[in-house]
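Hi W., the pyridoxal-5'-phosphate complex you wanted:
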Amino acid sequence: MNIQVDIRGREGLSGQIYKQLQAGILDGSLPVGERLPSTRSLAAQLGVSRKTTLDVFERLITDGYLRTHPGSGTFVAERPSSILRNASASGHRRPDLRSVPSVTVAASSPRTNQSCGYFATGLTDKENFPFEHWRLCINHALRQQARERTAYRDPAGEQNLRQAICRHLAFNRSVLGNWTDVVVTQGAQQGIDLIARAVIRPGDVVVVEDPGYPQARASFAALGARIVSVPVDAQGLMVDRLPGRARMVYVTPAHQFPLGMSMSMERRKALLDWARTEKAFILEDDYDGEFRFRNTSHTPLKSQDTDGLVGFVGSFSTTMFPELRMGYVVPPAELVKSISLAKQTGDLHSCTLIQNALAKFMLDGYFGKHLRRMHKLYARKRDMLLTCLEGDLGTWFEPVTSDTGIHLTAFLRRNTSTCRVFDPRTSALTGLSSISDFYACEPALAGIRFGYGGIETHELANALRLLSERLDERYVA
Ligand SMILES: Cc1ncc(COP(=O)(O)O)c(C=O)c1O
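Structure:
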């Protein structure tokens, strides 16, 4: 469904937006349970600051019109009778929309992963993305497309992009290989699914980490796999708990999802030894391995694999932005053909325009420059966050030791009030999500994820102050 919001002038923006959303809720055009777009995308589409939309959401939550569900988004709340009474007493009417230009905002579907709030995960810093260079690359690709004859293309992807990815992986991830071993995908998610299609058969045992990434689990389950959850500890997957006769094991060694530690060297070696003995396959999900902040990071399993046991999956969602839907797979050479066939069966091939633009973006050096710039920026935000989590917020949180990615996880100390952390008024603003949903069998530990990709440096201190105020017993709401 669509949300209509009309902006009349720049005065009292938050009041205008508040009233129109409130009116939509009251007259039922925004029905109970409807999911709202994130504050960031609403702000972008209305051309207002994020602070404006955050303020509006906070007021609507405080007034009982919206509610948040940690990790899933903001929804229209059941209307308490007090709201209905007040509304009818004030003779509330929907504003006249006929004579003013309108901005139409598509509300996110309940199935999307859209998130909002300062620390929402999965967001990257788009304010600092070099869109002017990206536009040059898109224009270049468009001219190329206009010149070329119409044709379905290679399902594995455009040669120039596969070469660019191959070079990037050699430099950045020590994954060496031939460009013909790279298959271009729509994000890491499709990469996981394609490898699974090529490797597993119904009834095969597939091991996943516990806690772990639910969408990988969903892909394997959809293919009829028998899923076995194996716990992780501070060193990553507990290899000595792996079952016999597993066909495949899915791991996130660079940055365990959702806890964040990286797999120790001993575990990596033990896992490769296990796979060799069991003739099992390892699916290595390197969804955000490009951003590493200490020298302690280990090279991927893929670069230590001499026996063709590892399929490597990567993504441009963290290095660029997730709605680009670009990623890649580097399987063992003998699986390239079946993975390309699976790709062809699913969607024939990825969009050629974006592939060519991305290839130019990488080969002309814009991508490397962007990565270096983002690395500095994320390092600064991460340091600020860690300093606070280990300092002022140390009474409540215990951060997981982690050196990679653009989110940090922290366990809640025993004395921390979970209802204060997930107080709807706080979580709408902070976007914090619980890790408990990612546990399948193991008893869930209490912890939260702090995404720092999307937050501005200047917002970080405010967001942390807001959180500590809400957690502080002395704070009176
Ligand atoms: C562990 C993990 N793997 C894969 C993905 C999918 O990423 P992409 O956007 O590249 O499909 C995500 C996205 O959140 C993730 O958290």
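Residues 98 and 401 are 56 Å apart (CA to CA).

W.
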